[in-house]
Amino acid sequence: MNALVLTESPGRLAARPLDDWNAAYSKVESYFHALRVRNRLLLGQLVELVLQRALARAAREPARSATELAVEEMDLLVNQWFAQVLQDNTEGAEMLSTRGRLALLLADQAGKWQDQFLRPGPWPAEFILAMRETYLRAGPDFQLSQMTPRPLDLGPIATLTQISRLPYAKMVATWVLFACLLVLLFILTH
Asked: Residue 108 carries which DSSP code?
């Protein structure tokens, strides 16, 4: 693997400031850390692999940020690896990525198989078996169900609408009588 080399003016790499590449490095490292890659040497190698791929695209796509290129390369690399390990090219990239990450977690990649992550094959048979079994378990379990309609429970609102209107009529009549009394009292005093 080639080391990242500064080839242009000071403080720039592939026509972008080094701060942009540092931000890209940080994003990729955080993603791999979220995937529970804890070995610092392996983590550094994986981040460098992704950044090398992003650097190769940077010259062809000058309008895109370094972080954007690195994240796309990272997603592409991880999804390609999931497709190879899980031998599943039928699902969309989003579904494969989601279920593949869940399979990594369930197969205890961080504990037993950290060194196999993003490594080209052949992989140990136990690793492939663990990944594929957990990948199949990561999907939804479909069950037939039958929904029977039930009456809606609207709570106290339903009981308020069913009360007879007689208490309200008495209350309204009382307030109207009180208002009339006040009007009459006002007329008599003025």
From this structure: T
Cα distances (angstroms) measured from residue 63 to each of 14, 32, 57, 152, 168: 12, 26, 11, 56, 71
Residue 36, token pair as written in the block: 């529970």
pLDDT digits (tens, 9 = 90+) for 77-107: 888 888 888 776 666 667 777 777 877 777 7
Distances 12 to 8, 9, 18, 66, 81 between C-alpha atoms, Å:
6, 6, 5, 12, 31
d(CA 158, CA 39): 61
What does the alpha-carbon distance between residue 169 and residue 175 come to, in Å, rounded to a whole number? 10
How many other CB atoms are there within 10 angstroms of residue 66's CB atom? 26
178: left (phi over 0), alpha (psi -120 to 50) or beta: alpha
In sequence order, what are the beta bridge partners of 13? 16
19-57: pLDDT as tens digits: 888 888 899 999 888 888 888 888 888 899 999 988 888
Stated pTM of the model: 0.60
